[in-house]
Amino acid sequence: MADTRKSPQVGGIDELYALPLAEFTPARNALVKELRHAGEREAADEAAAARKPTAAAWAVNQLVRSERKAIEQLLALGRELRKAQAALVAGGDAGALVSRSERERGLVQELVDKAARILTQSGGRASEATMDEVGETLHAAALDEESAAAVGSGRLTRERRAIGLGLGAAGPAPRRVAPRREAPPPARVTNAERRLAEARAAAREAREAAEAAEQGRRRAEREASKAARAAEQAAERERRAAEALERAKGGA
Questions:
Q1: Which pTM does this prediction carry?
Q2: 159 and 209 share a domain?
Q3: Looking at the structure, do residues 20 and 69 belong to the same domain, yes or no?
Q4: Helix (H) or strand (E) holding 169
Q5: Could you list the residue range(s) of the whole structural domain that residue 26 is in?
Q6: Number of domains in the chain
Q7: Cα–Cα distance, 204 to 75 (Å, whole number)
Q8: What is the enclosing helix (H) or strand (E) of 171?
């Protein structure tokens, strides 16, 4: 009968990348020790080679687990985006590329917001730099197949960077091109890149404003909490003073 038990070499390492970031290293060391004790030398070596992810990579790994449907939508949209890029290079219209780019940016922003909540809830810090890295990684996953595979694995160890519009990852050139079709003017690509850069800058500004607003809200909550405690303490002092006055009157 075939052995259907879960392989510790696969399941154990996958579980490492699902743990809170601070628990990764001690859990990995424990897994290596356990596998070596069990005589699973090859699996132990693989576990020992598992690298602790950066904060941004860890957040993306958690998105893969908690927002799997949205991640799959992003990767599918990335395939459509690469096809649209290839069509643009072949002389097609830029409209399809722009439309898909806008959808991709919107989905990336939604996932970045969710990653920020995951980091905050885990006790981490969703800094602007970290969230930019999360966004860049998700954007890279939509633009090239290698990054898509790395993100989809849920074992990402470092952030990924997207270069330009990723035209080099759009796939092979079409096998048949109309002989009279002229090459697309560079302005098409330039304009598409400009619109993408403007949208990304606007998204970054929006994230900064949201972060500033969140910090302001937290400060207001802290001040309100301090004021409430001060009011309670003042009320208690008033009650004790009133009781002391009553006792003084009774003893007069």
A1: 0.59
A2: yes
A3: no
A4: none
A5: 8-48
A6: 2
A7: 22
A8: none
